[in-house]
Amino acid sequence: MSTVDMLAMIADERHRMAELIESLKPGQLLAPSLCEGWTVHDVAAHLCAPWIFGARRIVPAVVRHGFRVHRANAELVRELALDLTAEEIGRQLRMNAEFTFNPRLVSPLGQLTDLQVHGQDICRPLGLARDLVPERMLLSLEFLLGPRARGSFVPRGRLDGLRFIADDLEWAAGQGLLTVRGTGEALLLALTGRPVVLDELSGSGVAALRARIT
Fold it and tell me: Which Gene3D superfamilies match (predicted)?
């Protein structure tokens, strides 16, 4: 996978997110998302953080919170949500679709994964269908099972002893004897700690994964 191809995928996901956010009604924007403590509007605003805040504010926030990316994001997102309307968020995503933000802690694969997961964080609680691109899901699943996601996207220890199988993608990864099976989308959300999908999974490792997430 070339860098050019990866950046094109990220740009396309930002355009898709812009269309989604611009289509939402005020009541939908105020609804809780799958991100604990964040509304749909908060999640949407968070996607603009890389170019509005930049590495000079994001990286120190991550360091200040012990490299816990989600806690650093929570510190910054409230300000963005207050400043940006849904229309402005959509415009920002289109204008900056090709923006690159690649410090060591947030690789292009991390950005691609963030966009896919947050799209579902918005759509699932609103009862909206949103298809993910299989090729991109595969890239993100591989990223989440790899070392670069450990400690940021995936807490250390969550995946220990587990093997994950995406039945719709013909994909499997992980070193464990206990299996967790489901759709690629459900695994993507489970790996990033969304308990709403746990009942959609099957296999001998689901109980262990549930205990680690909840």
Answer: dinb family like domain
The 10s digit of each residue's pLDDT in 68-102 is 566 666 667 777 888 899 999 999 999 999 998 76
Q: What span, in angstroms and rounded, lies between the C-alpha atoms of 22 and 11?
A: 17
Q: Rounded to an integer, what distance in angstroms lies between the CA atom of residue 212 and that of residue 193?
A: 9
Per-residue confidence at 210, pLDDT binned at 50, 70, 90? very high
Q: Identify the CA nearest to 136 among candidates 19, 1, 43, 24.
A: 1
pTM above 0.85, yes or no: yes
| Contacts by 21-28, CB closer than 8 A, 24 or more apart | 21/86, 21/89, 21/90, 21/93, 21/122, 22/86, 22/87, 22/90, 24/86, 24/122, 24/126, 28/126
Cα 113 to Cα 70: distance, rounded to the nearest angstrom: 14
pLDDT band at 63 (very low <50, low <70, confident <90, very high): low
- Per-residue pLDDT, averaged over 156-179, amounts to 95
> What residues form DSSP beta bridges with 39?
32
